[in-house]
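Entry 14. Structure prediction run on the chain below.
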Amino acid sequence: MARVKRGTISLKRRRNVLKQVKGYRFGRSTKERMAREAIAHAGTHAFRDRRNKKRTFRQLWMIRINAALRENSLPSYSKFIGILKTKKSTLDRKSLAALAKDHPEAFVRMAKHITG
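Output returned:
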């Protein structure tokens, strides 16, 4: 059987790892062992922060809705959401926040209509 040299595969693997860490600082961008570790940690942080992003956006929407309500002397955020739930409204926080930010007068009209 012919001899097989395995240099190409390991080189390809190494090139792929180093391509993923392009732009990292110090040895993490040039040394294979450090690069592998950096990729593992980056993946962990990316996974965690994709979930944290949802949390922070929800907080932002709540703040925007509450600010718009208080600015127009309407009930506070928690009372407003309670009223929405009792009226079984299908509007979510994201759309309410967008309305409050981009079309404040429409948001006020809608909020006054809902709160009665």
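The chain has one domain: 9-115.
Filed with the rest of this week's runs.
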